[in-house]
Design brief:
It is a single chain. With 421 residues, the chain is mainly alpha-helical. The chain is 74% helix and 1% strand. The protein contains 18 helices and 2 strands. It has helices spanning 12-34, 40-64, 81-102, 113-129, 134-152, 159-190, 195-202, 207-229, 238-262, 266-269, 274-294, 300-322, 329-354, 357-360, 371-374, 376-390, 396-410, 414-420, and strands spanning 70-72, 77-79. The chain has a two-stranded antiparallel ribbon with strand order 1-2. A hairpin with a 4-residue loop joins strand 1 and strand 2 (77-79). Helix 1 (12-34) runs antiparallel to helix 2 and helix 13 runs antiparallel to helix 17. It starts with 11 loop residues before the first helix and ends with a helix.
Length: 421
C-alpha cells in the first residue's frame, strides 16, 4: 500500500511536464478574482488572461511533444505524444469557446466565472488523459464533471439550465459510483491502481481473478461510455453544449483508448471474449439508436444528442479494430475521426450560437425556415457543418466515417461496417 503513493520531491523535468496544468489552474484562480467585478470590460480582461494562459500551456506542450514518454510520481501522471496531442486540441477548443461566449455573456446572464470553470475543466481533462493511475483518473474526472455541472447551470435566470444541471449531477454521481466500484474490483484482482502494474499482473492472475478484473473493466467502461455519449443538451447554452460535445467526448474517448491499449490481452479483449462482445453490442446499439431515433427528432438539440450517440458508435467501432496496437491504422482512424468530428460539431454549435435567440426559440427545425433570407452566410455554414456531422460527402465528416468503416472492413468487422454505412 505504501508504494502506491511514493511521494518524492518534484524535479525540474516533472515541473516542465506539469506546467500546462499549473498555468491553467493559476488562470482559473485569477478569473475567479476578476469575476467579483461585474463590469463588461473585466470580462474582456478575463478572456485575455485565459487566452494567454492557453497559449503558454500549448507552448509548454509543444516543447515536450517530441520527447520520449515521461512518468511523474511513479505513473501518477504519464506524458507522451498521445496525451500531448489531445491536450493541445482540448486547450484550443477551450480558448475558442470562451472567445465565442464573450459576445453573448450579457444576453445569457453569464458571469466572469465562466472562464475559471473552463480552465478547471481543462485541467481535469488534461490530467484524465495523462494519468496511468486510477486514483488520479478518478480525481481528474470529478474535477471535470464538477466544473461541467456548474457550467450547465451558469445561466442565472434559466430554470431549464438548473434542471439540466441537476439531472446531469444525479446521473453523473451514479456513474462516478459505478466507476469507483469498477476500480475497486480491479484493485481487488491485481492489488494495484497503476495501469502498468495491472497489465503486468493480468498474465499472472488466476482464473477467478480474471472474472473480477473483467467485471471491474465492465463497470469502468459503462461509466466512461456514459461520459462520452450522454449530455444534457436541452438546458445548457450553445457554447457549453459545444464544449461538452467536443472537449469532454475527446477526453473520455482518449481515456478509453488508453485503458484499452494498456490492458489489452487476447484473453481479455480478444475476439470472442466477453469484453469484445460487450463493446461490439454497445457499438451496434449506439450506431442504430443514434441514427434511426435521431431521424425522428424535430428539435435541433435532440438531434445533436442522438448524433453524439451515433458518433460514439463509430469511435467504438475503431476501438474494436484497434486490438491493442497503438501503431495500427485503427489508431489513425480514431484520431482522424475525432479531429473531423470536433471541427463539424464545433462549427455547427458556433453558427447556431450566432442565430438570434428570438428566431430559434425552442430550437425547433421549423424556426430555421427563412434563415437564408435573414443571414445567408450563417445559413450556408450551418448547413455545411450539419451535413458534415451526418457524414454526407464531400464534407470532412464523410472522410472521417469512411476511414473508420474502411478500417473495420480490413479488420473483418463487416457487420459493424454495414451498420455504420
Amino acid at each position: 500500500m505504501n508504494s502506491m503513493f511514493n511521494i518524492q520531491s518534484l524535479s525540474w523535468e516533472d515541473w516542465q511536464h506539469l506546467m500546462p496544468m499549473v498555468i491553467l489552474t493559476c488562470s482559473g484562480l485569477i478569473s475567479l478574482l476578476l469575476a467579483t467585478v461585474s463590469k463588461r470590460s473585466i470580462h474582456k480582461l478575463n478572456l485575455v488572461v485565459f487566452a494567454v494562459s492557453c497559449s503558454a500551456s500549448i507552448f509548454c506542450l509543444l516543447a515536450t511533444i517530441s520527447q520520449d514518454s515521461y512518468s511523474v510520481q511513479n505513473g501518477i501522471f504519464y506524458f507522451d505524444t498521445f496525451s500531448n496531442i489531445f491536450s493541445i486540441i482540448l486547450i484550443t477548443l477551450g480558448c475558442f469557446i470562451s472567445t465565442i461566449e464573450l459576445a453573448k455573456m450579457k444576453e445569457d446572464s453569464i458571469g466572469g466565472e465562466f472562464f475559471a470553470l473552463i480552465a478547471f475543466a481543462l485541467v481535469g481533462m488534461i490530467g484524465l488523459i495523462s494519468s496511468l493511475d486510477f486514483t488520479m483518473i478518478f480525481i481528474c474526472l470529478e474535477l471535470t464533471t464538477l466544473a461541467t455541472y456548474t457550467l450547465i447551470a451558469i445561466r442565472q435566470f434559466s430554470k431549464e439550465s438548473a434542471e439540466s444541471s441537476l439531472k446531469y449531477f444525479i446521473l453523473g454521481s451514479v456513474m462516478s459510483a459505478v466507476l469507483l466500484m469498477g476500480i475497486s474490483f480491479i484493485f481487488g484482482a491485481t492489488g494495484s491502481f497503476n495501469l502498468l502494474e495491472i497489465r503486468n499482473s493480468i498474465s499472472d492472475a488466476k482464473s477467478g481473478h480474471h472474472l473480477i478484473l473483467l467485471f471491474g473493466l465492465l463497470l469502468i467502461y459503462i461509466a466512461m461510455l456514459f461520459k462520452v455519449g450522454a449530455f444534457p443538451f436541452s438546458g445548457a447554452s450553445n457554447t457549453v453544449s459545444a464544449f461538452m460535445v467536443t472537449a469532454i467526448k475527446i477526453a473520455a474517448s482518449a481515456l478509453i483508448i488508453r485503458i484499452s491499449i494498456m490492458l489489452w490481452t487476447p484473453h481479455i479483449f480478444g475476439v470472442g471474449t466477453k469484453m469484445y462482445q460487450l463493446l461490439y453490442m454497445v457499438a451496434l446499439m449506439s450506431l442504430a439508436l443514434g441514427a434511426f431515433v435521431g431521424l425522428r427528432q424535430h428539435n435541433l438539440k435532440r438531434i445533436f444528442a442522438y448524433s453524439s450517440i451515433a458518433h460514439t458508435g463509430f469511435i467504438l467501432m475503431a476501438l474494436i479494430c484497434l486490438k491493442g496496437d497503438p501503431n495500427s491504422d485503427s489508431m489513425s482512424a480514431i484520431i482522424a475521426y475525432l479531429f473531423f468530428y470536433v471541427i463539424a460539431a464545433f462549427g455547427a454549435f458556433t453558427f447556431l450560437h450566432l442565430v438570434k435567440s428570438d428566431i430559434l426559440k425552442n430550437y425547433d427545425l421549423e424556426n430555421l425556415n427563412g434563415l437564408y433570407q435573414r443571414s445567408p452566410v450563417v445559413a450556408i455554414c450551418l448547413t455545411v457543418f450539419l451535413l458534415s456531422m451526418a457524414g454526407i460527402p464531400p464534407t470532412i465528416g464523410f472522410f472521417g466515417k469512411y476511414y473508420v468503416i474502411l478500417t473495420a472492413i480490413k479488420s473483418g468487422e463487416l457487420t459493424l461496417a454495414i451498420i455504420g454505412i
